[in-house]
Amino acid sequence: MSQHPIVEYTSPSSWAMIEDKISPFAKETLAKLIKFMEEDVYPAVRVAHAQLPADATRWQTVIPVLVDLKAKAKALGLWNLFLSKAHYPQFGVPLTNLEYACMAEILGRGGQLASESVNCSAPDTGNMEVLARFGSPAQQKKWLVPLLNGEIRSAFSMTERFVASSDATNIRTSIRQEGNEIVINGHKWYISGAGDPRCALHLVLGKSDPENSDKYRQQSIVIVPANHPGVKVIRPMQVFGYDDAPEGHCEVIYENVRVPLENLVLGWGKGFEIIQGRLGPGRIHHCMRSIGAAQYALDLLLQRVTDPAKKTFGKYLYEHGTVVGDIAKSRAEIESARLLVLSAALQIDKAKAKGALKEIGIAKFVVPSMACQVIDRAIQCYGAEGVSQDTPLANMYAQLRTLRIADGPDAVHIQQIGQRELKRAPFVTQRQTEIKKREKALAAKHNVKAHL
Q: What is the pLDDT of residue 278?
């Protein structure tokens, strides 16, 4: 039996470890996705970049080759792969999170274009999960169905300019009820998706009950149409000089925005519950794609150091210094990080995101740092070209470095995992005490004195 094409992108050993957990449908879909990426998407990355104008019209542009790719992907059944039917029976596809992890790694090699071509790009993925899980039937009909069909795009509006938004309880945006309306006032920034001409809605997090003694019941989430009166997109923010048009990461002001009461998601005071449900899958999706980006960077590194046109002092680059060691470290780090991601995806399938917080948290602070390190090694081998616009490495680094902040900074996840581990201390101490007792009794029985 021939090997699955995934092993050419990952490794035979990691695939062998999970292959028996992958359904025949998922294997067929994964093979189809790889073929689609190789034949259509990866060759289109530079074309898409060329089709995006350099002037201000880039923010009104829908990239033509992307439109073609989305149509072909939908026809092939490569659509909404992230949304598991096990968790969302009405809207999902018959794929587990573990199965999607393999697919997301392949998508990670093609950047934003790859994910969007199969309707699996952030922030839409997280917003679709919110609406599928928490939205009312009316909200799902009006907003979720067009998102699932790839007809519109969306933004998730949480981060604020003048507070430390890594602590969501600091959010200041006001959400209050006036009669049959909800009034929103707030100042947000780095709102991904808000610049896109296809963006039709913002999911806005704000404080609806700031005096509530439970600080996790003070927030609510409201659906705000993107073109609604009072919604002001101030400017696109840059990430290491990249504006990521046409989607962008924008500064947005909501000034006396009034929406109907039915735009409240799930209920008053449910905002924190919703964002926790949203961020868990989103974090692991980013990690899945990051593995693919790191692997692609290593592939580019290998091409560079074995290119006879790039010899220095009569030697291939891999014959110099620590290059071979860097290659080995990169390989080992990617393999290790992939196991973390697969473990987290499997745990989500078994216990949902809430039951996989430890696994997701560890992956979230390990994987982006690993990917940044691998990309940095590739940049070093490319020299000046590595930090230029002529390779994808600089942009990849900017994206991956941002992930160490987005969806919760590294320090927060590290702190949470460390605190979780400390809770094990009483058990570990008690277990060791019992072992010592048995050791003492055994030593007395044999009339010996331990030397250690």
A: 82
Q: Distance between CA 405 and CA 368 in Å, rounded?
A: 10
Closest Cα partner for 234 from 206, 253, 255, 256?
Answer: 253
- Identify each DSSP E strand in 290-354 by its residue range: none
Beta-bridge partner residues of 188 = 160, 252
The residue type of 109 is R
Q: Do the bridges between strand 153-157 and strand 199-207 make them parallel or antiparallel, or are there none, so unpaired?
A: parallel
In 3D, which of 34, 28, 6 has the Cα closest to residue 94?
A: 28
Cα separation values, 443 from 174, 232, 402, 434, Å:
68, 76, 56, 14
What does the DSSP assignment read for 311-330?
-BTTB-GGGSTTHHHHHHHH
pLDDT band at 408 (very low <50, low <70, confident <90, very high): confident
3-class state of residue 155 by DSSP: strand
Please state, in angstroms and rounded to a whole number, the distance separating the CA atoms of residues 418 and 422. 6
Cβ contact 166:218 at 8 Å? no
Q: Quick check: 301 and 329 in contact, CB under 8 A?
A: no
Half-sphere exposure (Cβ direction) of 11: Cα atoms closer than 13 Å: 13
Do the beta carbons of residue 261 and residue 220 sit within 8 Å? no
Q: Closest Cα partner for 42 from 110, 96, 143?
A: 110
**Which of 415, 408, 278, 265 has the alpha carbon at shortest distance from 353?**
278
Give the Cα-Cα-Cα angle 176, 182, 187 (nearest 5 degrees). Answer: 70
Determine the distance from the C-alpha atom of residue 451 to the mean position of all C-alpha atoms in its chain, rounded to a whole number: 52
Helices (H), 265-312: 271-305
pLDDT digits (tens, 9 = 90+) for 173-232: 999 999 999 999 999 999 999 999 999 999 999 999 999 999 999 999 999 999 999 999
The DSSP bridge partners found for residue 367 are none
Rounded distance between C-alpha atoms, residue 419 and residue 108, angstroms: 31
> 109 in helix, strand or coil?
coil
Which of 173, 102, 91, 35 is CA-nearest to residue 341? 102
Q: Quick check: 173 and 160 in contact, CB under 8 A?
A: yes
The Cα–Cα gap between 391 and 382 comes to 9
Cα–Cα distance measured from residue 405 to residue 414, given in angstroms and rounded to the nearest whole number: 12
Instruction: State pTM to two decimals.
Output: 0.94
Q: Give the three-state DSSP class for 249.
A: strand
b (16+ CB within 10 A) / e for 287-324: bbbbbbbbbbbbebbeebbeeeeeeeeeeebbeeeebe
Which pLDDT tens digit goes with each residue over 86-117? Answer: 889 999 999 999 999 999 999 999 999 999 99
In Å, how far from its chain's centre is CA 258? Answer: 31
